[in-house]
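Key result, reporting period 2: structure in, sequence out.
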């Protein structure tokens, strides 16, 4: 019985000593703290790392995930063992708090990086320890080991052992959006703030970092979605974080709209609204000569842009009963119209480039061509096909018709018309389709009086 009591007392004393090891100060001459290389070479640890790699399913693109564990040292014998972490995800793992084991101390940690350098979707993955891994090692003061397809790589302090009082830490999460939807991939940025680890170089999103408390600034460097531009970092590029808290920086990218490109092309001559082929036509009184152009603006569908258009009419009085024939400026608002309807900003008729007020009379001398034009501003919807109609001339006087010019009464006249047009748009990427060639001519024989 006495012997039994002495055994119980000895066992209790040993447990008390072991508990003291796990909570405060180690006994005299404790085992040396192992380095990462020594831990990786230890048979128990090496086998555990190999098993974690197998469990990571690196060859299965749908199920590969990170695995890891704490490396624990017996403070009496120096032997190493492993306490595995909960199963991780494809590119992250949550270790939880270091274990507290009597007569033992945590001396390191390991985890796997099962993703290949470039995966099946073309995403590039860091093979060695990430900045988050290094921050984790510094936070606990423990060396770490990363296992990937090529082997193992160590990082962090040379040696370390818990119990250890970590410096108060906080977390930063960096993610991104593309056109308002979550996006992940390669992008370079920096996190600048307090502590020796600053600045932190980020290489992808989404990513998490363990950082010192205080004010941190996120700055974009390069990369991101192909063809997209960074428009903001929200909620703010600079934020403060307290111990135990998490702040998030979101890099917001947008896909630039397609470039703007306005174009115009000749469609047809019309007489009283009816399309006609180029040629010679004898027309009766009360006739309107029109022209139609096709217009289009390529770019972001639904966007509304402002365009400025100029159309010229070269009128050549070739034959008639009088040496001079007279035009009368009307510049009726409805003389230039758009189908489908568009908002007209302004309209001005000119002769040889000079504006002509309403009721101005313009002489047309035989065999001396005169250039008329009309300048119009529009708001057009991008990616919409428009047809612009210009009611140039009316024979004889308009009597209220929506035209630009009318012909004062005269017995008989023959004249030839030709036309071309241009469209102007700020930011137009292709000027080669902004103007038409001179269209095929139309010859008109007018008999106004019997």
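The corresponding designed sequence is given below.
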């Amino acid at each position: 019985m006495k012997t039994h009591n002495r055994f119980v007392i000895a066992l209790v004393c040993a447990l008390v000593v072991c508990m003291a090891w796990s909570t405060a100060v180690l006994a005299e001459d404790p085992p040396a703290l192992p380095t990462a290389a020594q831990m990786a070479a230890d048979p128990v640890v090496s086998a555990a790392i190999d098993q974690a790699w197998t469990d990571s399913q690196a060859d299965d693109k749908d199920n590969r995930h990170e695995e890891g564990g704490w490396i624990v040292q017996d403070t009496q014998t120096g032997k190493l063992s492993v306490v595995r972490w909960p199963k991780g995800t494809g590119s992250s793992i949550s270790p939880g708090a270091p274990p507290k084991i009597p007569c033992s101390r945590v001396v390191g940690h390991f985890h796997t990086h099962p993703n290949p350098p470039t995966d099946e979707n073309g995403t590039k993955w860091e093979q060695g320890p990430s900045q988050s891994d290094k921050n984790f090692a510094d936070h606990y003061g423990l060396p770490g080991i990363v296992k990937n397809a090529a082997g193992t790589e160590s990082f962090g302090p040379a040696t370390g052992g818990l119990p250890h009082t970590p410096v108060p830490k906080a977390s930063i999460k960096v993610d991104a959006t593309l056109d308002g939807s979550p996006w992940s991939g390669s992008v370079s940025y920096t996190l600048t703030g307090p502590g020796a680890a600053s600045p932190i170089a980020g290489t992808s999103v989404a990513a998490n970092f363990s950082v010192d408390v205080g004010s941190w600034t996120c700055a974009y460097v390069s990369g991101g979605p192909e063809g997209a531009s960074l428009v903001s970092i929200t909620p703010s590029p600079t934020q403060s974080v307290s111990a135990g808290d998490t702040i998030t920086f979101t890099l917001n990218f947008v896909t630039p709209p397609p470039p703007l490109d306005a174009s115009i092309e000749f469609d047809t001559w019309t007489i009283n609204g009816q399309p006609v082929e180029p040629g010679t036509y004898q027309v009766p009184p009360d006739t309107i000569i029109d022209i139609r152009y096709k217009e289009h603006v390529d770019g972001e569908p639904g966007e509304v842009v402002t365009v400025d258009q100029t159309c010229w009419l070269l009128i050549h009085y070739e034959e008639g009963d009088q040496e001079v024939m007279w035009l009368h400026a009307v510049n009726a608002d409805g003389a230039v119209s758009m189908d489908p309807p568009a908002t007209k900003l302004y309209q001005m008729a000119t002769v040889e480039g000079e504006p002509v007020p309403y009721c101005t009379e313009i002489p047309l001398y035989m065999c001396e061509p005169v250039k008329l034009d009309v300048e119009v501003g529009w708001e057009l919807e991008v990616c919409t096909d428009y047809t612009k109609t210009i009611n140039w001339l009316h024979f004889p006087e308009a009597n209220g018709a929506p035209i630009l010019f009318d012909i004062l009464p005269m017995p008989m006249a023959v004249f030839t018309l030709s036309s071309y047009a241009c469209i102007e748009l700020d930011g137009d990427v292709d000027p080669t389709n902004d103007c038409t060639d001179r269209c095929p001519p139309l010859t008109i024989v007018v008999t106004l009086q019997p």
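The CA atoms of residues 16 and 261 lie 83 Å apart. The chain has three domains: 34-91+98-165, 167-256, 261-447. This case is discussed further under Risks and Mitigation.
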